[in-house]
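Narrative progress, year one. The postdoctoral researcher (J.K.) led the effort to move from monomer predictions toward full complexes, under supervision of the PI. The following entry was the first complex the group processed end to end, covering 749 residues in total.
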Amino acid sequence: MPQPVYLDHAATTPVRPEVVAAMEPFYGPRFGNPSSVHRWGREARAALDEARERVARCLGAKPDEVCFTSGGTEADNLAILGPLRSQRAKGRTAIVTSPIEHKAVLETVHHAARDGVTERMLGVLPNGVVDLSSVDDVVDDSVAVCTVMWVNNEIGTIQPVPEIAKAVKARGGVMHTDAVQAFGKLAIDVKTVPVDLLTISGHKIGAPKGVGAMFIRRGTQIDPMFHGGSQDRGRRPGTENVAAAVALACAAELAIAEHDAECTRLASLRDALEEGLVARIPDAVVHGRGAPRAAHILNLSVPGTDSESLLMALDLAGVAASSGSACQSGSVTPSHVLRAMGVRPELAVAAIRMSLGALTTPECVSRVVELFPALIAKARRLSGVA
Amino acid sequence: MLVAMSGGVDSSVAAAMLVEQGYDVIGATMKLFCYGDDVPDRPCCSLDSINDARRVCEKLGVPHYVLNLESAFSRDVIDDFVAEYAAGRTPIPCVRCNTFTKFRDLLRKADALDAPWIATGHYARTRNGELLRGRDAGKDQSYFLWGIDRSVVRRMLLPVGEMTKPETRDRARALGLTVVADKVESQDICFVPDGDHAKIIARRLGADTPSLARGPVVLVDGTVVGEHEGYARYTIGQRRGVPGGFSEPMYVVGIRPADRAVVIGPRDALLGRGVVASEMNWLVDALPVGSPVQVQVRHRGTPTPAEIVRMQGGEIELALEEPVAAITPGQSLVLYDGERVLGGGFIERGGAAARMTLPVLAA
């Protein structure tokens, strides 16, 4: 069996050794509860505060603007539902989002809609970017929250978040962006982009699963989702996960420090992968082609194939990829993102997402460029497409 | 080798035995339907079964995949299931699932993975390209397998068909497959988890569909003796829900969708001397008219000697040597020669000889 190739970094990434080392003391002697008054508590508290400062620096935020969560999904929920009560008190009753959001956002918005909030969708262009010309149609003075992801997790397209944020702020709404796939891949500075809330997740950047953070701009009113103690200024009650916060801070700093070099490296690998595959499979359709894209995601469909069979064949050959969206059972379902872009269903069911990252080398890319066209040829032979 | 794994003990042991025998095994669980919100304590998409199958594969050290065959299954199996009940018949969805889903659609997936063989946990056997009954007469599932394409038999492996159910369980324990060894066997149809098939019919056709609407219970001579709450709740030979007060026990002997009537009669009226089936599929070279065979008209029924009296297109008619009770349209007619499965079809009606005693079925 040749060396396995992991091309699913958008799903999750390996925890970096530096991060493991940074966490370790908090599973050992520094086990204290940050709310305790004694020495153990003070030690933990110091580590937590420092982690908060470090994450804040990575975002261009102030430390009190960072709230640790259990991950991206919790942060997205908090960002959408948290501001609703105070916004509705001001007569703002609409949520604006896009149909290509992550389920953590879409399902939360649907949930709020069942509670009486009006749901409004921005338009999406065929290249997978939110249509800015649709902003004026849906953003008005009744908008409570607008939530648009910064980098799409399935196809990697960069969304015009700064422009949308300006429009939303001009009408007095709260602006949230899910930056889970954007962090470490785009330069993010909340001093220059007028978002009020921003989500990041640890396990996409080399920290463990189960930790994320939300930037909450000063002055943004948020109701907590949980009730209990006064941890994190009451925004997120529950004893803080100190080790995970330290891990997130460590991974985030590394991602920022390596941002330029790593993005250049990934972009050139991604381009080699894309060009290599398209050269060998000329009718392959690269989703989001021509749109600004983050460096680490390539999503393509080959007519006459289906992702379910291709993913199995790839896995059996030692290559991990994804269809972009998996159901809880692990089965493959057609992507809502591609549907929103107007991709034909028979092409959407063939989508394969390859996402690059720390484990990706030029050898990985050449191996896939070699292997994938052969699998495609076979799949087409079986389906009767020439 | 692609092994269809339901997460139950039979297919898990099948996979484990094949791994032991040195096959390059790939486990696959088919996702066929969603319970939706109807069954709150069962997670959607048969998730528990999928997880069990995945854990067994992990233990065996083989890959496992979930294959989404929901839309094909809905079309080939559930649509037909509902249409059959609406037509006053009693379908066996497992037959169509084997024919279309497992041994056609899943086989295509096997092709895509270069897997020359496909294995399942059925209690049946194959030999030289022929299908045989399972060794355990009490568990034999060959009755459900008559519809598969004959050429597929050579690609099938049915390892537990050589064993009895207790042997399979012992084997599971010996193999350390504790997750599944003592799992309770479900007698339900997989997509009707609570045994209430009327619920599925109502969901597909609407609660006011004729087959679930009130109708008359009549005697063979036409006398109305009561009312029922939908003929789809009845099957030939059924006693439950049949009005009492007659000199002998009464059974459902016919279902007439045209006037929504459920026809009842004494046990004698259930007996048939002939049977007609459609969509005849041969798993051996087709036998000529006049050939003696054994037939089975229901799962776990006793095989009855019979003679082929007519074959026309996909239709076959047999004369039965002795009368058989409750020949039910929609069930399967399977032809055997001892332990060999010769072929089968879907029962349309009692045959010529039966018409004498069961005028209602000819109506």
